[in-house]
Design goal:
With 380 residues, the chain is mostly helical. Helix content is 65%, strand content 1%. The longest helix is centred in the first third of the chain and has 28 residues. It is globular, with a radius of gyration of 21 Å. The protein starts with 47 loop residues before the first helix and ends with a helix. One of its GO terms (molecular function) is branched-chain amino acid transmembrane transporter activity. InterPro entries: ABC_transp_permease, LivM-like.
Amino acid sequence: MNSGAGSVGWGERAAEPQRSGAAAPSWGSRGSPQPTETDPYADQDAPRWLKFLWRHLEARHVLTFLGLVLFPFVASPFITFQVGAQSLALGLVALSLMFLSGYGGMVSLAQMTVAGVAGYTVAILGTSGTSLSLGWHWGIVLPFALAIAVLASALIGWLSVRTEGIYTIMITLAMGVAFYYLALQNYSVFNGFQGFQKVYPPTVFDVDWRSPLPFYFLVLTLSLAGYLAVKYIARAPFGVALQGIRDNPRRMNALGYNVTAHRVAAYAVAGVLAAVGGILLVWYNGLITPGSIGTSWLINILVIAVLGGMRHPVGPFLGALIFVLLQTFAIDVIDRERFNLVIGGVFLAIVLFSPDGLLGLWASVRARLQRNGSVTSSMR
């Protein structure tokens, strides 16, 4: 998984990153968007993130954002909370896998494990309906949860980046299963199979953040921040170097780049995304148990990421929406025990018709329509 243009290839390969001290290329969706005369921030000392937004903001981005903002005002509280908020939280965890696989060529099955580490830390150090919780203030608990999850993710990366392909997948799966059994069999810290109940978000500014509307906007804000962060990192020098390592690690090593350090750093970045998603999922469910980090959920995150598409950061959120819709409404048609059969059938169909997921399927359909339109116009 670490080399070549396999299933995680990106079409055009990343340009060869320059050595330290040289300016890194700035990539956009259509070539190399350098500052132009129409860029109001070209000659100003504005923040880089503001220049980034101006150069890459399009009408479809604005329309999508407005749709997400208006969604809870036209949907019922059940749909807002059960479908909207859950899809965004799961998409954030799957986004961490997309970052590792799409930009780094590393497929990890331990992203829900990292999310579970953050969730368990919040439950253990914070407040819950279990006497094992320490009851610390949320302002202390959240930084601790993020830091511990990022350290766990970096450790997983340090142990797995020296392998390739199926061996990387098996190592990350083994560590995920190991953490599952640790939580299941340890009662003094993790409370065994019962886990922690009544783990709710804190009341800040006199707002009940677990109510459908506030919780949705909380998850939307953090998901949007994660999406923009991934888009920005992909065009930053670190992201360009990571894509070069994905395509040809030997050449990047010969150019003087520390391949192992870049890969471990990518795991750390992905750990931040997974940790935030894990905390949101714990608040969404109001509990965390070993079942929350079981093998089925390790696989589900991979399914969500592949369903949407591994080539763009929006893919995991699209895959999460399909997954949650099936999970919420498929049980009305079939038995709950057969839900995995439906998910497996949808996953198989999408992979067979479009290895790049729903986004790849849409891109191929759009390209075909454009070709047919050009042929029709040329025949006139």
